[in-house]
Design brief:
alpha+beta; ten-stranded mixed beta sheet; 35% helix; 21% strand; disordered C terminus
Length: 468
């Protein structure tokens, strides 16, 4: 993929970039840091091999110390910058079926002085490594043709940052304490809602689905979700409160040996197009009940999937979508998580998200916030070059707007006597002969948006086929 631009290309986008940066005028009390924002973004958009302060300063003819001060000491409101990114997305890129994607990312670093650095799991290297971990919330339109990072926080490890002197040297605020990653993400979701972002769906990987407090937090917010779960995730295939013989089993066992699953035929569903052709998976589904904090909850969707081209590749998904929701849009959301991986890839490889060489907490957060602005600019330019219109320009001003609640209740599943029947009625007819594209859901979450053509998806500022 190619996002980098030459100096000539950046210059050609000068008027568009200037108009775009006017959105963030109020985040700066003085013109100097406002100009440094423009220079930093030009450097991130450039074809520089590394996007740290010194190369960007040289590229934009800015004194290196001046650009270092922009991240570290200059007076400007980086939290307002983050909020403004979210307000622009809510105003110009609204999608009633928008998908929120939650994930974290590791940034390998040397030494022990960088804020929040610790030997911990680093997804970037695929092993435990000395790294800084950032936690992210991103936004994707239902067709995933528009993607933007909405929020980024640093994860403070539970151990190793109790020394006041070490904290002070790294600029870690006194109020910042250890919080689980899922707690950080729930706070990010709350902030996005305040800024007018409405998600029809949230999707997460199997680490987050293993955190009962996280799924409970989503349900307390009446937020619909699709979560990949481990094959060892325990559940009941029927409500244990009404059947004394209900067995508590791992979902892998339920999917392979429960009567409800064994009597189903595999159904095919089109996921997306790749450089190797269409990606098609097949699925079975059933209602399940789960145990959380001493309570039996359900029914939930359990969806068992496998790759048509490689039956050994299997995935299991849990969703609190209401019974009667078509399976295909649930799976479409489940596999939309690739767009977060793509967004992180874009920001790391092309915008230099991991290239920061500053060490203090606020400076790193500022770097992440500016990277979000750069990515949003690219996403908007991609949309403009495609000739697509932004959604609902007649919406209220981004300042203090209200967004209608399109979320459905997650606990109103009806009585036990009808829940399995309702899930069975929702099971689609066979699509073996004609793999189908995702369709809009047909429940209480708002007006359908129409079937999207997945094969026309175009990545940021280039025309290659999407790759996961």
């Amino acid at each position: 993929m190619e996002l980098r631009m030459t100096a000539e290309q950046i210059l050609s986008l000068g008027p568009e970039l200037a108009d775009f940066l006017d959105e963030f005028y109020d985040c700066f009390a003085r013109s100097e840091p406002r100009n440094h924002l423009a220079n930093y973004i030009r450097g991130q958009l450039s074809d520089l091999p590394r996007k740290s302060v010194e190369p960007i300063a040289d590229f934009t003819n800015t004194p290196r110390r001046t650009l270092q001060e922009f991240l570290s000491w200059s007076e400007w409101d980086h939290l307002a910058l983050r909020d403004c990114v979210q307000q622009v997305v809510a105003r110009d890129h609204v999608d009633a079926q928008a998908i929120g994607i939650i994930d974290d990312s590791g940034h390998p670093k040397s030494g022990t002085k960088t804020a929040c650095v610790q030997v911990q799991w680093c997804g970037n290297t695929g092993q435990k490594d000395n790294c800084v971990v950032s936690v992210h919330l991103s936004y994707a339109s239902y067709d995933t043709r528009f993607r933007a990072m909405l929020d980024s926080d640093l994860f403070l490890p539970k151990h190793g940052w109790d020394d006041p002197d070490r904290r002070a040297e790294a600029g870690i605020p006194d109020h910042l304490v250890y919080r689980p990653k899922y707690d950080i993400d729930l706070a990010q979701l709350d902030r996005a809602r305040v800024n007018g972002i409405c998600f029809a769906w949230i999707t997460v990987d199997e680490w987050y689905s293993g955190c009962p407090n996280f799924l409970g937090g989503l349900e307390a917010r009446r937020q619909r979700y699709v979560a990949e779960i481990r094959r060892s995730f325990p559940a009941w295939s029927c409500d244990p409160r009404s059947k004394t013989q209900a067995s508590y089993r791992e979902v892998e066992t339920l999917c392979r040996y429960s009567h409800f699953m064994m009597t189903q035929e595999w159904q095919k569903v089109y996921i997306k197009v790749t450089e190797n052709g269409p990606m098609v998976w097949e699925f079975k589904c059933a209602p399940i009940w789960i145990h959380r904090h001493g309570q039996v909850l359900g029914p939930y969707w359990l969806i068992y999937t496998r790759n048509v081209l490689n039956s050994d590749e299997e995935k299991y998904f849990l969703s609190n979508a209401t019974p009667g929701t078509p399976v295909e849009p649930i799976l479409h959301v489940a596999f939309a998580r690739w767009s977060m991986e793509r967004t992180l890839e874009d920001e790391k490889s092309e915008l230099g998200m991991s290239h920061f060489e500053v060490r203090k907490y606020d400076a790193i957060i500022r770097h992440l916030s500016v990277t979000q602005v750069s990515h949003l600019f690219l996403a908007r330019q991609t949309k403009r070059l495609r000739g697509e219109k932004s959604g609902d320009h007649h919406l209220p001003s981004p300042r203090g707007r209200q967004c209608p609640d399109r979320r459905a209740p997650t606990q109103s599943f009806g009585s036990q006597s009808t829940s399995r029947q309702r899930f069975a009625e929702a099971h689609p007819k066979s699509t073996k002969e004609h793999p189908s594209t995702p369709i809009p859901h047909a429940n209480t979450l708002g007006d359908p948006q129409g079937t999207r053509n997945q094969s026309r998806r175009t990545p940021l500022l280039h025309s290659e086929i999407d790759r996961k």
